Amino acid sequence: MAPNGRIIFIINARKSDDPIGKESIYFWELLSKAISYLVSQGLIDEEKLDSFNAPIHTPSQDEVEELVKKEGSFTIEFIELLDIDLVGVWSSPEAKAKNVRAFSEPLISHQFGDKNVMDKLYDKVTQMVIEDYKMQKPETMKNVSLVAVLKKKETH
């Protein structure tokens, strides 16, 4: 990147200091419950579940700022957490479930099975999202994103 060049990024983030709070792991919790359900139905081998590990981290704004400063190649020109109203973004719980599938299926399909198993898994995820919408769980209604503009420092 050229000196004084800029990069803009938008990532999922969290407001709380708790790295495993509901706002950070909601989607993965849904997947975990759905996978466990398919294990209980005999559609996924329990050994596959036990051997699966997907380390996921949703950072806070403070963590991003600290990492940028520690790495040292960039300055932060702008950084802000945004609450995204998901009801407006995804018009239905089914649309939200499709989003979950879009980002997670490439990460988990190699571990848990063919298209038939994946279809059953995401059908279960869809059912759970529909129920969460009916109960108006806060984690189904909002998402937190971090927007940052970083400027490449000049090197001498």
Provide an overview of this structure:
This protein is of the alpha+beta class and 156 residues long. The chain has a single domain, classed as Non-ribosomal Peptide Synthetase Peptidyl Carrier Protein, Chain A (Orthogonal Bundle). 53% of the residues lie in helices and 19% in strands. The chain is built from 7 helices and 3 strands. A 3-stranded antiparallel sheet has the order 1-3-2. Helix 1 (22-40) packs across helix 6 and helix 5 (93-112) packs antiparallel against helix 6 (115-134). The chain is elongated. The mean pLDDT is 88. It comes from Corchorus olitorius. Keywords: Magnesium, Metal-binding, Methyltransferase, Transferase. GO terms for molecular function: metal ion binding; methyltransferase activity. Pfam families: Methyltransf_7 (PF03492). This is SAM dependent carboxyl methyltransferase.
Features:
3 strands, 19% strand, alpha+beta, three-stranded antiparallel sheet, 156 residues, single chain, 53% helix, Non-ribosomal Peptide Synthetase Peptidyl Carrier Protein, Chain A
Quick recap:
This protein is of the alpha+beta class and 156 residues long. The protein has helices spanning 22-40, 46-50, 61-71, 86-89, 93-112, 115-134, 138-141, and strands at residues 6-12, 74-85, 142-152.
Radius of gyration: 19 Å
Low-confidence stretches: none
Instruction: Give the mean pLDDT.
Output: 88
- Number of distinct helices: 7
Largest sheet, strands/sense/barrel: 3 strands, antiparallel
Output the strand order for the largest sheet: 1-3-2
CATH secondary-structure class: Mainly Alpha
Number of domains: 1
Helix and strand sequence: EHHHEHHHHE
Distance between the termini: 15 Å
What is the CATH architecture term?
Answer: Orthogonal Bundle
Shape: elongated
Number of extended strands: 3
Look up the CATH topology. Non-ribosomal Peptide Synthetase Peptidyl Carrier Protein, Chain A
Protein name: SAM dependent carboxyl methyltransferase
Keywords: Magnesium, Metal-binding, Methyltransferase, Transferase
Organism: Corchorus olitorius
GO molecular function: metal ion binding; methyltransferase activity
